[in-house]
Design goal:
0% of the residues lie in helices and 46% in strands. It is an all-beta fold.
């Protein structure tokens, strides 16, 4: 289902069925609607699983379907979660799965395939690609397929690749404009954090890793960059703050088990743990807790921040927090 709510009242304005399908096999901490929609201000783009196929659709703000396509197969013992990302006139979706994996770009207008790039190692990942201007060229960086790799989002061709450092990934990469580095964390079975210089070509495993550590690495929650700091929380619930340039560990703090990704606004970083407790932290060389707020129900989805309000999907409610 795709739902539209009035952001002032929380009233459901409309809902529409994207696809009818049997419920897939999934991990106990996954849901049947893990994918995050994307919008360009004109249409909303969604992705779901229909049996053994990925389904991607586009809808207007009244809930009318504009197109629906099946760009390729998808099978994973942990269930589906491929969030669409937008680049120029394309919708790009990660098709890493336990089979013939691929990355695919679709036309925003029609859903037609613009390019489709095969992935070599046929291994599931749940990483949303990061698209940014890096090293004077558009790059789409993602971890998965037993690698960290950069592709040209215009045509899907490979820029550079780093082997490993582990098999499976969930967390998405982040970029620091101050350091010019890409940061990734993962995964399973080994846990790593890498800081990567994104100006290479070909296989750069031996040349472009600026720093790495296994301390504080996360499998599921995505990290965040805040000014000079790289912040991350492990799935077991220990928050870490590193100096982004050097990888020097500045502090660590136990914050409760986490699967939601970190978000930031107004110079603060929000850690939402599985029990619905949010720790609001001011990034710095020492741990500074600004506030601690409890929702009273389990939360696994990452918060979304817009116009001074925080939206959080709990296991029973959707919450809007902030001034009216």
């Amino acid at each position: 289902m795709l739902l539209c709510l009035d952001r002032t009242t929380g009233k459901i304005l409309w809902n529409t069925t994207v696809v009818h399908s049997p419920l897939e096999r999934k991990h106990s901490l996954n849901s049947f609607a893990s994918s995050t929609p994307a919008t360009d201000g004109d249409k909303v783009y969604v992705a779901f699983l229909d049996r053994a196929e990925m389904v991607v659709g586009a809808y207007d703000f009244e809930g009318n379907r504009k197109w629906l396509v099946r760009p390729g197969p998808f099978a994973s013992m942990h269930g589906f979660c491929s969030s669409p990302v937008l680049f120029e006139d394309k919708v790009i979706v990660n098709g890493d799965h336990d089979g013939a994996s691929y990355l695919v770009a679709l036309s925003r207008t029609t859903g037609e395939i613009r390019w489709k790039t095969p992935r070599e190692r046929h291994t599931r990942s749940y990483c949303a690609p990061l698209i940014h201007e890096l090293g004077g060229r558009a790059q789409m960086v993602l971890s998965g397929d037993k690698s960290v790799a950069s592709y040209d989002p215009e045509d899907g061709k490979l820029h550079w690749i780093i082997d490993g450092p582990t098999e499976q990934f969930v967390a998405s990469p982040v970029y620091s404009a101050k350091t010019g580095l890409i940061y990734i964390t993962g995964g399973y079975p080994d846990h790593h954090i890498l800081a990567i210089r994104p100006d290479g070509r070909g296989n750069v495993t031996q040349t472009h890793i600026v720093w790495r550590t296994t301390k504080g690495a996360a499998y599921v929650p995505s990290p965040i960059i805040a000014d000079d700091y790289f912040l991350i929380v492990s799935d077991s619930g220990v928050g870490h703050c590193f100096e982004a340039l050097t990888g020097n560990l500045l502090w660590q703090e136990r914050l409760g088990e986490h699967h939601a990704s970190l978000v930031s606004a107004n110079g603060l970083v929000y850690f939402l743990n599985d029990d619905g407790m949010t720790h609001v932290v001011k990034p710095g060389s020492e741990y500074q807790l600004v506030a601690r707020n409890e929702l009273g129900e389990k939360c696994f989805a990452s918060p979304a921040i817009s116009e001074g309000q925080i939206f959080i999907r709990g296991d029973r409610h959707l919450f809007c927090i902030g001034r009216e």
